[in-house]
Amino acid sequence: MQVIIRGSEDEVARAAADVFSSYVRAGAVLGVATGSTPVGTYRELIRRHRAGDLSFAGTQMFALDEYAGLSCDHPQSYAQTIRREFASHVDIADSDVHVPNGAAADLVQASREYEEDIDKAGGIDIQLLGVGTNGHIGFNEPGSSLNSRTRPMPLHPQTIADNARFFDSADEVPRRCITQGLGTIQRAGHLLLLATGEKKADAVARLVEGPVSASCPASVLQLHPTATVIVDDAAAAQLVHRDFYAVAADGDVPA
Ligand code: F6R
């Protein structure tokens, strides 16, 4: 695992965009995340696209997860969010943006179909990830099997509380979702996890330096041969070896 520590959210976004751009240029299959963390990275990628430096032609996007029970045109559905924040601003066909069907009557079948769609695309080359304050990635909450595949899952009360800011009240946050599993995520060629702000410091310390454990689902990144974690100083605050990571990462950002 490579841990890169930057001084600000903007620097995290630029470093993440550098890594992601090399995959975009190669016409890769891109795994995308929603939530607040990747928004700066998306803005930077959109800026590079508008400047004529980056084309998404030939890429496909796969979202990590989707709420269950929201129609796909609900503004807080991840299908809408990923288009609003990112995909609609770059040159990717709408049909190349894939999101699990959280509105399906049969969520198990919809999960199976999503895995098949990823396989048909040839697998995800780079998966962008945020981390929940409880250590989740995607919506793989604590206790998720490290080998899990895309499936319906309940949301943890902490996630419902954290995501209430996107809705009028916590009561409106859906209670279930479809999420890529931890085994699904680990099949991506490169995992790129971003975290900013002091609220993420505990989760970052557990995922980077804690034991690999279903109690902290993001700790599966330790098992992946090509995992990059980019954090700002606030999110790095509880890392015991942060001085070493700063030296080790110097000039060594993977393409
Ligand atoms: C979003 C997702 C979640 C978020 C995580 C952090 O698609 O899968 O795991 O990445 O909840 O959310 P933010 O970035 O809003 O703090």
TrEMBL record:
CDD domains: GlcN6P_deaminase (cd01399). Gene3D superfamilies: 3.40.50.1360. Keywords: Carbohydrate metabolism, Hydrolase. The active site is at 65 (proton acceptor), 134 (for ring-opening step), 136 (proton acceptor), 141 (for ring-opening step). PROSITE patterns: GLC_GALNAC_ISOMERASE. SUPFAM superfamilies: NagB/RpiA/CoA transferase-like. Its EC number is 3.5.99.6. It catalyses: alpha-D-glucosamine 6-phosphate + H2O = beta-D-fructose 6-phosphate + NH4(+). InterPro entries: Glc/Gal-6P_isomerase, Glucosamine6P_isomerase, Glucosamine6P_isomerase_CS, NagB/RpiA_transferase-like. Pathway: Amino-sugar metabolism; N-acetylneuraminate degradation; D-fructose 6-phosphate from N-acetylneuraminate: step 5/5. One of its GO terms (molecular function) is glucosamine-6-phosphate deaminase activity. It comes from the Bacteria. It is an enzyme of class 3 (hydrolase). Residues 25-223 form the Glucosamine/galactosamine-6-phosphate isomerase domain. Catalyzes the reversible isomerization-deamination of glucosamine 6-phosphate (GlcN6P) to form fructose 6-phosphate (Fru6P) and ammonium ion. Belongs to the glucosamine/galactosamine-6-phosphate isomerase family. NagB subfamily. NCBIfam families: nagB, PRK00443.1-4. This is Glucosamine-6-phosphate deaminase. The gene is nagB.
